[in-house]
Amino acid sequence: MSTRRSVPIPSLTISCAALLLIFDASSIQAARVSPTALERDTGAVQTPTVSQPPAAAGANILNLDTSESFATIAAAINDADTATGHTLEVQSATHSEGIVNVTKGVTIQGTSGGSTINAAANTGSSGNARGWFLISANDVTFRDLTFDGGAFNIHQAIRCNNPGLTVESCGFQNLGFSTYVGFGIASFENATITDCVFSNIERVS
């Protein structure tokens, strides 16, 4: 994976599915990405086929609205008591998470000072399975988090099929699936991205 400099994004609203930002060492430019690189599914949203890894030790995820704790973000989202509008907080400085299907309009945020989410599984190579965090609900928010792919093959850190995605004060780093393939965010609906930093992305943020 080629190393690229960190680029802060003060404020960006994406209103076109195929409009992303490409970063290199000298400039920032808007570019239209080949549809085959993003490949929006035209049918029903499918749950990624990559398995969620075993729950990590401890209960690092707190639902601030129900006061329930969970070992993974996926478990917190899937819990029957978690509802649209709830806030899920990663309460540790670092947290490992496998593939997540965000099916409710929740806020996922880091603890005070921010939290790093480390990948714990490879993503797939096509369709919705490409997303580490697959967004299949409206009005999902990520805040004060760093998404770190580490040694895993991550095609897209966030893949969004629904409107209303907000990403605030987040970092995306060490993301790549293969040579020149690696995305920070792939959104097919309107998304608002504010104060984010992209670092060491294989190709497109």
Q: Your description of this structure?
A:
The chain contains two helices and 18 strands. The protein is mainly beta and 205 residues long. β2 and β3 form a beta hairpin. The chain is globular, with a radius of gyration of 16 Å.
Q: Point out poorly predicted stretches.
A: 1-5, 13-35, 44-56
Number of strands: 18
Strand content: 35-45%
| Head-to-tail CA distance between termini | 14 Å
Number of helices: 2
Q: Can you tag this structure with a few keywords?
A:
2 helices; 205 residues; 4-stranded parallel β-sheet; globular; mainly beta; disordered N terminus; 5% helix; single chain; 18 strands; 12-stranded mixed β-sheet
Summarize the structure.
This protein is mainly beta and 205 residues long. The protein has helices at 35-38, 73-78, and strands at 7-14, 19-23, 28-32, 61-63, 69-70, 87-90, 94-97, 100-102, 107-110, 115-119, 131-135, 141-143, 145-148, 156-160, 165-168, 171-175, 183-187, 191-201.
Question: Helix and strand layout, with pairings?
Answer:
Layout: E1 7-14, E2 19-23, E3 28-32, H1 35-38, E4 61-63, E5 69-70, H2 73-78, E6 87-90, E7 94-97, E8 100-102, E9 107-110, E10 115-119, E11 131-135, E12 141-143, E13 145-148, E14 156-160, E15 165-168, E16 171-175, E17 183-187, E18 191-201
Parallel strand pairs: 6-9, 7-10, 8-11, 9-12, 10-13, 11-14, 12-15, 13-16, 14-17, 15-18, 16-18
Antiparallel strand pairs: 1-18, 2-3, 4-5, 4-6
